Amino acid sequence: MRFWFKKRPKGERPGFDEVLPPEGVPLYFEIATFGVRFGAQLIDILITTLAALALVLLLSAMGLSAPGFMMAIASMLFFLIRIPYYVVTELLWNGQTLGKRMVKIKVIAADSGSLTAQSLVVRNLMKEAEIFLPGTLLLSLDSGSPMWSLISLAWITGVIAVPLINRRSQRLGDIIAGTFVIHLPKPMLLKDLALSSNTNREVKAKFTFLAHQLDHYGAFELQTLEDLLRADANVYNSATAMRRKETIDAVVKQIRKKIDFADKVNPSENIEFLQSFYNAQRAYLEQRQLFGDKRANKKHKDEKDTQTPD
Amino acid sequence: MSDQGNLMRSARFRAERETDWRKLEALTAKAEKQGLAGMTFAEARDLASLYRRSTNALSIARQISLDRALLRYLEALTSRAYLSVYAPQERLGGLLRRFFAQSAPQAMRRSWVYILIGFLCMALGAVAGYFLYFENASWYHVFMPPELAGGRGPDSTTGQLRSVIYDSDPDASGLGAFATYLFSHNTRVAIFVFGLGAFLCVPAILLTFYNGLLLGAFYALHVERGLGFDLAGWLSIHGVTELSAICIACGGGVQLGAAVLFPGQRSRTDALRDAGKDAVKLALVAAIMLVAAALLEGFGRQLIQDRTARLVIGWGIGGLWLAWFVFAGRKRS
Q1: How many Cβ contacts (< 8 angstroms) between chains A and B?
Q2: What is residue A290's predicted lDDT score, i.e. its pLDDT?
Q3: Which chain B residue has its CA at the smallest distance from A127's CA?
């Protein structure tokens, strides 16, 4: 079937999917993996089972019904609690059951609109047919009927295979409802590297870079350097500190070689050198980008040469 | 000289907008915790306008900034705000009313062809079962699983059959019988029939047909003993509702299966999604009917022992269902 083999559009990050809100600025959401969703499902099953158990105990304590029918009433209660639970929680909490809240995942509509009650009912009713029916079948198996065990086994394999093959790891119910499950993005604003070092005027004056020295690298190298500099704050023990120092030494050496930086850099000034290089490089690249010269990585020169040899 | 003047463009961009972002972050957290309904007017208005400003900032930042921390933050912030701005705003009561008054009967009318297929499968099965039984009574044992027949078969006496139909000493309490019934054979069949339909039509059709066979053979057994009309009464009181529910569930399943098999010009995913809109309503209707049938079986069948009364109630309720499907939710002209 075609929806199992749909190709990822070019230029999209793997594991992410694009959603285009009405504002017209595409957003990229990280698709929740199978394991996380399974965990959320387990929590939900636990919650609904506990709720149903409590009710059953209450009923039997009140002695309303003959013990012979208690099993039947119990299984009815499981149904009557479970089915509305998923639909109502996802509707009220905007696509999150209690289990999904705990593991911080969320259902969203694939067509970038808001979730409709319709789609939530569809995906949760299909869950009955997809997960719980073969699940109970598997639990209530007896060795006397190998045909049913084979059927339920095949069913479960098929049901698990669909989200594993699928690009957005959608269940069958997700496909029919037009939804998929994402990790909730967590906004965390780190301080601006350029800003924190700018207050230190001394550094800026000490290391200056010329335009041709900044022509070597692209955005990828800049952001890798950014990650290296940000990792500074959390050094725990001496071993990691030593390793880090070696890495920084090597990086400084490599950069100086690549850009032909002739001035001497003291090992004690390594961090300052990298910071001012980061600043200068970022300012330069951003400026180039404004003029339409977007440099993804250090290979940008080769690409340009093949396009327009001069 | 101000500090702002030294900054590169992207850092200045961030410094100018950071307070707005922090405010949006707080508002989003509040909206997620309390829902938009729990916010004041000013907060909701700010959330919407700050969200639009942050999408704007995000699209600029993607062009001018290479600061990965900033880009990631803005992406996450805008996504979170988007999710709470476009959260579903429906209330449960309104949803239920709309389902019963409009969308369910409308969906039933739209997919009448599939429901007809469901009924046809069942009817064909019943006719086949009926004639097969008269051809050779041992067919009965081929179709009927022993636990379902409850000891009734070609070997039972007419008296035994009659005593099941007119149970003078109901031992089951109403609630217990109701619950047992819900998990009886037919509910499982309805769920299976719907679920299997989604995978492909054939199993759903076969299963419905098979249930028709059971019904036909069972009916033939009673007709042979001259109990045909009595069984009709016994079955009618809940069976009209219940067997219709199975056929409707089958119709829903077939609708899904048909979308996978014959998607037409659309992709299979789209076809399945479109078909799912009506099919799931059929499944819900079938579920409601099964609960009603369980109530009828649990209470009605034990209390009402008269044949004519059973027939009248059973078909009367069937007529009520039909009236709901045919007349409800039509637009007034």
Answers
A1: 195
A2: 85
A3: B195
List chain B residues with CB under 8 Å of A219.
Answer: 66
Q: Report the percent of chain A where pLDDT is more than 90.
A: 8
CB contacts of B87 in chain A (<8 Å) are: 94, 114-115
Q: Which two tokens stand for residue B205?
A: 């059709």
Helix, strand and coil content of chain A, in percent to the nearest 5, comes to 65, 5, 30
- Residues A202-233: tens digit of each pLDDT: 455 577 888 888 888 888 888 888 888 887 65
- Structure tokens, B241: 């509702």
Helix, strand and coil content of chain B, in percent to the nearest 5, comes to 80, 0, 20
Question: Kindly report the CA angle at B101 between B98 and B104, in degrees rounded to 5?
Answer: 80
pLDDT single digits (tens) B183-214 = 566 666 776 677 666 666 777 787 788 888 88
Torsional sign, CA B177, B183, B189, B191: positive
| Of the candidates A43, A106, A52, A115, the residue with the CA atom closest to the CA atom of residue A83 | A52
Question: Rounded to the nearest 5 degrees, what angle is found at the Cα of B324, between the Cα atoms of B323 and B329?
Answer: 120
Tokens (6 digits) for A217: 């690298």
- Residue B214 to chain A, least CA–CA distance (Å): 20
Instruction: Please state the rounded mean pLDDT for residues A14-32.
Output: 87
Rg (CA), chain A: 29
Tell me, yes or no, if the pTM score tops 0.80.
Answer: no
Looking at the DSSP bridge assignments, the partners of residue A183 are A105
Residue A90, token pair as written in the block: 């996802």
Q: Is A132 in contact with A140 (CB distance < 8 Å)? A: no
Task: Give pLDDT tens digits for B72-127.
Answer: 999 999 999 999 888 887 777 888 888 888 888 888 888 889 889 889 988 998 89
Shortest alpha-carbon distance between residue B229 and chain A (Å): 31
CA torsion through residues A293, A299, A305, A308, sign: negative
Q: Tokens representing B263?
A: 């998607």
Taking CA–CA distances from B80, the nearest residue in chain A reads A185
- On whether the CB atoms of residues B222 and B85 are closer than 8 A, the answer is no
Please report how the helices B68-85 and A219-230 are oriented relative to each other, as an axis angle in degrees rounded to 10.
Answer: 90
Q: Residue A9 pLDDT more than 70?
A: no
ipTM over 0.90: no
Q: What does B165-211 look like in DSSP terms, one character per residue?
A: HT-SS--S-HHHHHHHHHTSHHHHHHHHHHHHHHH-HHHHHHHHHHH
Helix (H) or strand (E) holding A197: helix A193-198
